[in-house]
Sequence to fold (246 residues):
Amino acid sequence: MDKISAVWRKEMTLQLVSPSLYGIVAVFLAVTGLNFWKLSLESAGAPTALSVLLFGPMFFWIITLSLITALTMRTFAEEKRSGSLELLMTAPLRDVDVVAGKFLAALTLFACALLPVAGYPWILKACSTGIWTVDKAQVVTGVAGVFLMGAFYTAVGVLISALSRGPVLAAIGTFAALNLLFFMDAFWYVGPSGAFQHAVDYVSAIQHAMDFSRGIVDTRAVVYYGSGIGLMLFLTVKVVEARRWR
Fold:
């Protein structure tokens, strides 16, 4: 754990001194905040759950996928481009320590960017005379669902960064892969109905996202994301190991 913590601290230090990080997070919070405010005005007087206003719009998920792409594209690709990855590989660290430390650093930054979003309903309540209560359970469940999905997608982004030669290629590959995973249910028609359609619905994150935003905790989604994180990190370790032996 000490070695993982050392890699995590190094990654966090590099990110926190980068002005681009603050710009990325500021854009994310501004876009999600303005979107929530706009939808709140449009639904004034209608019995719409705050968590649905917050997590239901598709635009929220697109900007979230963009945030994860921006946070993960440099994890390995930038070090490969600059040549510092070879120096890191000579340090007394296991490949799993490097991968876990980089993954946790990116996930920590994602959690820090996501946390203020959970406060939007209370800000709306404080500024509005028509909202007396906030369904805490739905908001908490929605945030937990977004975080769990984000953890899986962060692992995907780290893997693609390890496979890419540079940050730009990593960003393109990650954003494409995340959109494919999120909107997988749009491709149900390419195969036979029945079991295939159920499998596509299970893989598609949009179905799980809608459940979490309504306060529904589906254990199948938890298993899917948990096993997905493990698989992506395992594959990333193997990619790093392959590079060490080149």
About this structure: The two ends are 27 Å apart (CA to CA). Residues 2-244 form one domain. The chain is about 75% helix and 0% strand. The longest helix spans residues 136-163.
